[in-house]
Design goal:
The chain is of the alpha+beta class and 422 residues long. The chain has 15 helices and 9 strands.
Length: 422
C-alpha cells in the first residue's frame, strides 16, 4: 500500500514538473506543447479511470487517472488564469473540450471494428471499453466546463479575503472544485454500479491529497520561478465576460481609462493598477518598479511654439512609450507633461535599462519647432524606484520616484535617476 502511495506521489511530481516546464517554454514554443500534453492526458485519464484503481487507505481506492491526471488539468487552468488571465484559461478549456469530443466520437466509430468478423483483435479488447469511454468523456467534458467556471469564481472570491495567503487560496479553490467534480463525474459515470459510494469517497480523498501537492507546487512556482508574460488583446464575447471579474475590468480600462490625447492610460487607471500590482507583488514576493517621466522645459515649448505643438509632442511621447513597453507594463499619463510607467516583476536595475532606452529614443525621434525652423530634440528626465525593496506603499513609491525625477532636473535635466545613482 505504501509503495502505491509513493508511486502516486512520483507520478504527480513528474506530471507537474512536465507541465511547468512546458509552460516555462512558452516564450520559445508558445502554448502548443502544453496544450498537446494536456490533450494527450485526456485519453490516459479516461483509460485509467475505467481500468485501474489502487488502494491508498483501507477500503479507499483511487484511480491515477482522476487523482493525478485530472487534478493536473485543473492545476494548469488555474496557473494560466493567474498568469494569463481569463482569455488564456478560456482557450485551454475550449481545447480540452474539443479534444474530449473528438476522441469520444472516434471511439464510437472504432467500436464497430471490434466484433467485426474481419477484425484481428490482438489484445482481445472488449467493445464495452470503446462504448463506455465516450460516456465518461461526455460527462467529463461537461464537468470540466462547470469546474473551470467555478474554479475561477471561487479563486476570485477568496482573493478578496485571503489577499496574502496565496497557497490557501489555491488549495481551497482546487479542493472545493475537485469535490464538486468528483460528485458530478462519479455520479454521471458510475451511479448504477454497486461500488458507486466507495468510488465517490475514494475519489474525494485521493483528489484532496493530490490538491495539497499541486497547490504547493503551483505556489512555489508563482513565488520563485515565475517570469513576466505577454498578454494578447482581449476579445470579450462569451460566458466568461459575465462571470470573470478580470476581463470585465480590462474592458473598463479600454473603454474609460485611456487618455484621449496621448493614447496611454490615464491617472485613474494608474492609481488602480498600481494598488493592484503592489498587492499581487506582496502575494508572490515579486518586485514592482515605477518610472516617472517628465518632459524637460515643456512650458517653453508651449510658450515658444504654441499649445498645438506641445500637444503633438505629448502625443508622440505617448506612442513611443507604448512601443517601448512590454504587454505586461502599464504606461500612463500622470498629469500635464508627466508620464508614469508601472513595471511588474521588474527590478530597479532592469527599469534603469528601460529608462535609458526610453530617454534615448525620445531624444532621437521627437523633435519640436519644425514648423518654425528650429527642429530641436525633446529630452526627458526620469526617476525610478522599486517596491518592496525601497518602499512598502504606493504613496511612498510615487514619492521616491518623483524625488529622483526632480533630482535629475536639478542635475541638469535629460537624466535617468534611480537607486544605483544616488
Amino acid at each position: 500500500m505504501i509503495s502505491q502511495v509513493v508511486l502516486l506521489g512520483v507520478e504527480s511530481v513528474i506530471v507537474s514538473m512536465l507541465l511547468l516546464f512546458l509552460y516555462w517554454l512558452r516564450p520559445i514554443i508558445g502554448f502548443s506543447g502544453l496544450y498537446v500534453a494536456l490533450g494527450s492526458f485526456q485519453f490516459m485519464q479516461v483509460l485509467l479511470a475505467l481500468s485501474i484503481y489502487i488502494e491508498i487507505l483501507p477500503g479507499v481506492l483511487v484511480s491515477p487517472g482522476s487523482a493525478v491526471m485530472f487534478t493536473a488539468s485543473l492545476y494548469v487552468v488555474l496557473l494560466i488564469y493567474i498568469e494569463e488571465d481569463a482569455l488564456g484559461a478560456r482557450k485551454l478549456i475550449y481545447g480540452l473540450a474539443l479534444a474530449n469530443i473528438t476522441m469520444s466520437s472516434l471511439l464510437i466509430l472504432f467500436s464497430f471494428h471490434v466484433n467485426h468478423p474481419l477484425t484481428v483483435n490482438f489484445f482481445n479488447l472488449p467493445k464495452e471499453l470503446f462504448l463506455q469511454s465516450p460516456r465518461i468523456w461526455i460527462v467529463g467534458t461537461i464537468a470540466l466546463i462547470v469546474d473551470t467556471i467555478l474554479l475561477i469564481l471561487v479563486f476570485e472570491m477568496l482573493s478578496r479575503f485571503l489577499t496574502r495567503q496565496l497557497f490557501l487560496r489555491i488549495f481551497i479553490s482546487i479542493t472545493l472544485i475537485l469535490i464538486v467534480d468528483t460528485f458530478l463525474f462519479v455520479t454521471g459515470s458510475f451511479v448504477e454500479r454497486p461500488e458507486y459510494g466507495a468510488i465517490l469517497l475514494s475519489g474525494i480523498v485521493g483528489k484532496s491529497v493530490m490538491a495539497l501537492f499541486y497547490s504547493a507546487s503551483l505556489t512555489f512556482y508563482l513565488r520563485f520561478l515565475d517570469k513576466p508574460v505577454e498578454h494578447e488583446p482581449l476579445a470579450l464575447n462569451d460566458l466568461f465576460d459575465v462571470l470573470t471579474y478580470r476581463e470585465k475590468y480590462k474592458r473598463l480600462q479600454e473603454a474609460s481609462f485611456k487618455d484621449s490625447l496621448t493614447g496611454v492610460y490615464n491617472r485613474a487607471l494608474f492609481e488602480k493598477r498600481l494598488r493592484e500590482e503592489l498587492s499581487k507583488a506582496r502575494d508572490t514576493g515579486h518586485t514592482v518598479s515605477l518610472i516617472m517621466i517628465d518632459v524637460d522645459r515643456f512650458k517653453a515649448i508651449n510658450d515658444t511654439c504654441g499649445h498645438p505643438e506641445g500637444d503633438r509632442v505629448l502625443t508622440e511621447l505617448g506612442s513611443l512609450l507604448m512601443d517601448c513597453c512590454r504587454p505586461t507594463d502599464t504606461p500612463c499619463r500622470y498629469g500635464g507633461e508627466e508620464f508614469a510607467l508601472i513595471l511588474t516583476n521588474t527590478s530597479a536595475e532592469e527599469a534603469m535599462t528601460l529608462g535609458r532606452r526610453i530617454n534615448k529614443r525620445i531624444k532621437d525621434n521627437v523633435k519640436v519647432g519644425g514648423t518654425a525652423g528650429l527642429d530641436m530634440p525633446v529630452t526627458v528626465t526620469i526617476g525610478i524606484a522599486e517596491f518592496p525593496t525601497e518602499v512598502d506603499s504606493a504613496a511612498d513609491l510615487i514619492r521616491l520616484s518623483d524625488q529622483r525625477l526632480y533630482k535629475g532636473k536639478k542635475q541638469g535635466r535629460d537624466q535617468v535617476v534611480g537607486p544605483a545613482l544616488e
